[in-house]
Each structure stands twice: as structure tokens, then as C-alpha cells.
Specification:
Blueprint (H helix, E strand, L loop, with lengths): L2 E6 L2 E3 L22 E3 L1 H17 L1 E8 L5 H10 L3 E5 L9 H14 L5 E5 L10 H9 L3 E12 L2 E8 L2 E8 L2 E5 L11 H6 L9 H7 L6 H10 L6 E2 L40 H13 L5
Helix pairs in contact: 3-4
Bound molecules: flavin-adenine dinucleotide.
């Protein structure tokens, strides 16, 4: 049976490459100073959705909410195998906390019509709340399987999945439609295919036409570029708040009940240190001590 899947992906600042300018004096992330990357666990979510499509048929639509530049993760999704992509971009989405983000994403999913599976990463490496997946499921009135590591069985209207927990795994069964938040141990995301990279090289949103024309002036005018992309199904749709039928007061800052009150910089310093003999006996004694203190077990 073919399944219609949606994957929610986020473009995030690469927090593995922190430089001195990574934070603003106000304590917020200086996004301009960090390279933007595909949120790592969203690649695992995309891979899980692609595997479902490859095994059972159906289609995979990838949605991201972000500024015009977030189209980059949508192109990357096309290179890796997604069938359709959508960018949610509108000034009215700006300043959203997780509630307003999940509201906008749930409106976009509803616009797609009947959906069997929604895949999210477990957590984004910048906001780090792991709230967006569960909140989106709530707003869609869908059951959710968090920390999903594998789909054990997908048959008709139900799914059996393995969840990765701190001290083991859990197998759960759930009816469809359902939302899964996927962990990094789930799979090895497939790389971008060279054939698809060539095929979707020019895939773009209308918000990128100016920069595209600056790079490839031979396209001529924005109208000519638009016709070229439309004809080849390379135009990435951009949905605004109006397009997804969202209530404005539930979006962006007005729709965000949480406010950042204060940001503290925490510097972790070792308070105690111990020198251990680099011998088997020295290491054995250290391990015993750590076990006695319940630090390792
Ligand atoms: C009080 C507060 C104020 C904020 N103000 C701002 C602000 O002014 N400007 C700003 O840019 N950010 C702001 N943020 C951050 C913003 O709310 C989060 O980036 C966003 O809600 C996602 O939360 P997260 O990063 O914790 O994602 P998580 O909940 O950790 O993400 C889990 C998964 O949800 C999906 N997901 C998350 N975000 C998106 C997305 N945008 N598109 C598609 N899928 C997604 C992905 O699959 C991801 O792996 C604010 C956050 C808070 C708490």
C-alpha cells in the first residue's frame, strides 16, 4: 500500500563550528556568523520517509519554515530523493517560539490534505527543545511515536516502531496517520545523488530569482526565469500565512507565549582533579572508585 509522507526539516546554524562571533552581545545566536546546515536528525527523518516510499510506494513531501535561504535544505532534500518540497516563508512567521512554529507547520500539513505519516527530527541543534514534533502532532490530533529508531512493520492502517530509550528499546504499535520523531541512530542517511543534483540544480523559489539572475544573467528577466522553472517543474512553492489559512494572532511573536527573559553564559570549570597512574592497577582502582560513587555502572 502506498503511503503519503511529510518530513519537517529545519535549517540550523552549524553549532559544531562555533567561532568568537557566534553570539550577539544580547546573548542570542548570531546566525549570520555561522554556516547554515541541514539539522542532522532531520536527515534521519528524511531517510526513514524515503525508505518507506522505496519499499511501499507513495510520495515524500518535505516542508521547512524559515527565511528565503532555507530553500537550500529543500534543494538538498530533492537531491537526496524527496518528491515535493514546500517553503513556508512570511514575515508574519518571524519571532515564533515552538508553539507558533508547530501551529504554522500543522496548518501547512493540513493544506496537503490526507497524510499517512509525518516525520520530524527528534531535536534541532539550535533551539534544542524537541518540542516541535510533539506539538505538531497535538495540533494535528495525531498519535505520536517519539525517539523512533526503526519501523518494524507498516501494514494497512497501522505502524509498529522501535523507540530508542536511555536504558533499552520499546516496541510500540499505533494507528495511522501518525507522527514520528526520529533519532540519529535510526539509519545512515543516503547521500545526494549526482543525477538528481544535476536534475534539480536550478530548483528555486521566486524569492531567489534576483540572486539567481545575478549568477546566471543568461536567463534574462524574472519572467523568463519563472517560465523556465515552471516548465521543468523546478519551481519550489512558497506558502505564506494566508496560503495555509493560519490565524495571524497564533503566528510569530503575537502567537508566542514564551519570551526569553535572560540568557546566562555558563563556563564549566573542573573543580577537582586526580592524577591516576597510567598502569592497569591504577586504571582498575579508578574504575572501582567511579563504580562505588555510582558515576559509572
Ligand atoms: C521564547 C522563544 C523565542 C524565540 N524567538 C525566536 C525568534 O525571534 N527568531 C527565531 O528565529 N527563532 C526564535 N525562537 C526559536 C524557534 O522557536 C525555534 O527555532 C523553533 O520553534 C523550533 O524549535 P527548536 O529549534 O527547539 O526545534 P525542536 O523542537 O528541537 O525541533 C524538532 C524537530 O521539529 C522540526 N522543526 C523544528 N523547527 C522547524 C522548522 N522551522 N521548519 C520545519 N521543521 C521544523 C524538525 O523536524 C526538528 O528536528 C524562539 C524560541 C523560543 C523558545
Amino acid at each position: 500500500m502506498p503511503y503519503k509522507s511529510v518530513v519537517l526539516v529545519k535549517q540550523v546554524p552549524d553549532t559544531k563550528n562555533i567561532t568568537g562571533e557566534a553570539m550577539t552581545p544580547e546573548g542570542t545566536i548570531n546566525r549570520a556568523a555561522l554556516p547554515a546546515v541541514f539539522n542532522p536528525e532531520d536527515l534521519n527523518a528524511l531517510e526513514m520517509a524515503l525508505e518507506v516510499r522505496d519499499r511501499h510506494g507513495g510520495e515524500v513531501t518535505v516542508i521547512t519554515m524559515g527565511p528565503p535561504g532555507a530553500a537550500e535544505v529543500l534543494r538538498e532534500s530533492l537531491f537526496r530523493g524527496a518528491d515535493k518540497v514546500v517553503l513556508l516563508s512570511d514575515r508574519r512567521f518571524a519571532g515564533a517560539d515552538t508553539l507558533a512554529t508547530s501551529y504554522a507547520l500543522s496548518c501547512a500539513i493540513k493544506k496537503l490534505g490526507q497524510v499517512d505519516l509525518v516525520f520530524c527530527g527528534r531535536q534541532a541543534i539550535d533551539g534544542d527543545t524537541a518540542q516541535v514534533g510533539p506539538q505538531t502532532a497535538e495540533k494535528l490530533d495525531m498519535p505520536q511515536i517519539t525517539y523512533a529508531e526503526a519501523i518494524v512493520k507498516l501494514e494497512g492502517g497501522s505502524i509498529i516502531a522501535r523507540r530508542a530509550l536511555d536504558h533499552g528499546t520499546e516496541i510500540v504499535k499505533c494507528s495511522l496517520p501518525c507522527l514520528l520523531t526520529v533519532v540519529s541512530s535510526a539509519n545512515e542517511p543516503r547521500p545526494a545523488s549526482v543525477r538528481r543534483r544535476i536534475e534539480y540544480k536550478f530548483a528555486a523559489t521566486s524569492l531567489e530569482y534576483k540572486s539567481l539572475l545575478a549568477r546566471w544573467p543568461s536567463f534574462g528577466t524574472e519572467e523568463a526565469l519563472d517560465a523556465f522553472l515552471e516548465q521543468r517543474a523546478l519551481k519550489i512553492p512558497v506558502w505564506t500565512a494566508t496560503d495555509i489559512g493560519a490565524e495571524e494572532q497564533k503566528l510569530g511573536l503575537p502567537g508566542s507565549p514564551t519570551q526569553v527573559y535572560k540568557v546566562n553564559f555558563v563556563v564549566l570549570e573542573g573543580s577537582e582533579s586526580k592524577v591516576v597512574d597510567p598502569t592497569s592497577d591504577g586504571i582498575k582502582a579508578l574504575i572501582q572508585e567511579l563504580m562505588q560513587e555510582y558515576i559509572v555502572g
